Fold this sequence. Notes:
The structure holds 2 protein chains of 2 kinds. Chain A is mostly helical. Chain A contains 6 helices and 2 strands. Chain B is 74% helix and 0% strand. The radius of gyration of chain B is 19 Å and the shape is globular.
Amino acid sequence: MRRKKGTLLPLEVSILQCGIDLAVRGAPLFHGFLIAKEIRDREDAKLLTAHGTLYKALDRLQKSGLLESDWEDPLVAAQEGRPRRRFYHVTAAGKAALVKSLEAVPAQASQRRIPGMAAL
Amino acid sequence: MSAPLWFATALTRSWAATYTRGLPAELRNERCDEIDCDLWEHQWLASRRASPATGTAIEILARMLVGIPSDITWRAQAGSPSRADRSIKMNESWYTRVLLAAGLAIGLFAVVTGILAAFDVMDDADGSPWIVGGTLTSLAGAAVTTGLLLCRRYPLAGIGLVLAGTITIAVVWYWAQVVTIPVGLGLIAVAILRSGISIWPFNRPGPSPTGAA
Lengths: 120, 213
């Protein structure tokens, strides 16, 4: 899908919404699979977002400054016997971009309102 | 780990290793680590929910296959390979590039068709053969796509993948062999043409060293 300048793609909106929602629920940091699961649950989708689609969108949002990420300490991951996670969080610019995006499409915004939006 | 799950995770890891090849080590490792983490979390959640391993494997495969176009475009944007091993070389003739583009479109069409076929059947919940057929079609399409991209640098592996993919599609869609066989032969021809291997009728007779005809 071709992006209009200054707008967010639907998947990017979903990622930001779910990230903010998780933060409101006390989990400000999320990794790729967690956000894919949140999007599936929210949108009642059959499939989790595809690997390529998801990580490309996360990369794009990070490059735009709407998300920031940090790699988990490998020792923590090793102690828990799993691969290290890359934790993302929504930046202030990400929250502003989401608000702007939802305001631009009022009808969709009303459908997409989430608990965390009140905190923005 | 069950065999389908092992296969799905191994294929996904292999695909990640393939499309990140030639990127700077840091970027490559980050993407592969992220996919690795995703696969681990997916399996962990499935085991916690006691989900069937086959269903999880199909879901992992579907996520990989649906994401292939994004992986390819991400790879193209992430940077050119440092070595002269680009899949689509600019010194290829225009008709080779057109044929390659058509071949890739056919491969991706098979991927999408297979996924749609598999999931349509899942809705019916009683047609398990189409889950298999759809999955095989998607895998075959992915093999054709990957093979066409690889055949320039790895001729045998690339042609082999295209061959395997086209044969699989011809078998699975056996009632459509009037279409699948000619198209499959065309795809194999494109792979051979791209690979530069001298196989009749693709070898161009050069001048004889002795000057004899």
